[in-house]
Specification:
By secondary structure, the chain is an alpha/beta fold. It has one domain: Fructose Permease (3-Layer(aba) Sandwich), CATH 3.40.35. It is built from 7 helices and 9 strands. The strands form 2 sheets. The protein has a 7-stranded mixed beta sheet with strand order 3-2-4-1-5-8-9. A two-stranded antiparallel sheet has the order 6-7. A hairpin with an 8-residue loop joins β8 (145-147) and β9 (156-157). α5 (88-96) runs parallel beside α6 (128-140). The radius of gyration is 15 Å and the shape is globular. The N and C termini lie far apart (38 Å). Keywords: Cytoplasm, Kinase, Phosphotransferase system, Sugar transport, Transferase, Transport. This is PTS family porter, mannose fructose-specific component IIB. Its main location: cytoplasm.
Amino acid sequence: MTMDIRLARVDSRLLHGQVATFWTHAVRPNRIMVVSDTVAKDNLRKTLITQVAPPGVRANVVTVNKMIRAYFDSRFDSFNTLLLTENVGDMVRLAEGGIDFSKIGINIGSVAYADGMTMVTEAIAMNPEIAKQVRILTQDFHLNVYAQKVPAEKKIEMTGLLEKKNF
């Protein structure tokens, strides 16, 4: 048996109000796993993230490799997890490490804009590298990758959004 991942979400803001309020209510996790090699090394960001977890839900910040090990470790089978990464590349690494997202797919909540990127939704910016990572998830791992900011919104398939913007 493995840990129960109830939502796998890419959100450049990681754990914030929408996630802490709407998503935790919708998926009912007992654990939020923020997966980021960068944040795991930043004690201030780690502390802030663990402090904003909603009541009754513990938050942990771990590296990509540590998350892969925990996923296959039976000591963590009781975790009903909301998994967050700040970029699509980390989701690809988790999938490559054997984490099974086939039942839930990958939710893209927000990808922050930077120079040279194109907005594909009001909250998701893309460039060719990120579009390639989305295609790895959809084509190589056969995952449903979709945009959805909050649970009440309709899911929008990312491949269609990429095609509309010529990615």
